[in-house]
Amino acid sequence: MKVYFTSIRLRLFILMALIALSGAARPAVAADDLAKVLAKLDAASGKFKSAQAEITWENVQTEPIPDSDMQVGNVLFERKSGQLRMALHLRTENGKPIQKDMVYAEGLFKLYEPKIKQMQVFKAGTNRAEADTILTLGFGGSGKDLEKSWQVSLVGTEAVDGDETWKLQLIPREESVRKTFPKVLLWIDTDTGIALKQQSFDPTGNYRVVHYTKMRMNASVPPGAFEIKTASDTRIINH
Asked: What is the pLDDT of residues 52-78, one digit of tens each?
């Protein structure tokens, strides 16, 4: 099963830029506990400049035939002049070499696949604010901004790779978003206020999990990190 980036999926990662849960979450549903988490996100947002990590992206299909695929690569987020940019580079799919380069910047999402000599370009257009909101899930978005776009509840605390996290459930406030992604789970590092894992569901019950490891915060961003260099004979498809 391959990952296809349609304009609908653009809303998720552009999720999109997402599991078998490791351990049971400990209940922590008091209002003051959620307020503490949101305050931590506010504080982390003020300090956030960039994040770089290795990424594992798993797609799980539950219906009609159970199936899954796993892609591995690295990802970079940067906030500059109030705008968030993302660069994602996938290097393996189900253990086999693959190259997919994806960049979201200034309202444009680009997907480059050298093997087929093709780059697709999507314009967020009127959905840019929505795309930016989804992109900032766990990466530089404030608690206040999170509550504007999502109904937020604190499920509990849970360990991810040995680090304690707050597990949040997010329900989109916009009906149009709920029809595509009715629920998102987010695991926030209690120390840094940054996401270590995300899980999003579609209306059929299929889901995507993104797992971040070897996180580096506010490290230097290489020049040209959000540019894609293509071969001269690459076909450009504008959507």
From this structure: 999 999 999 998 899 999 999 999 999
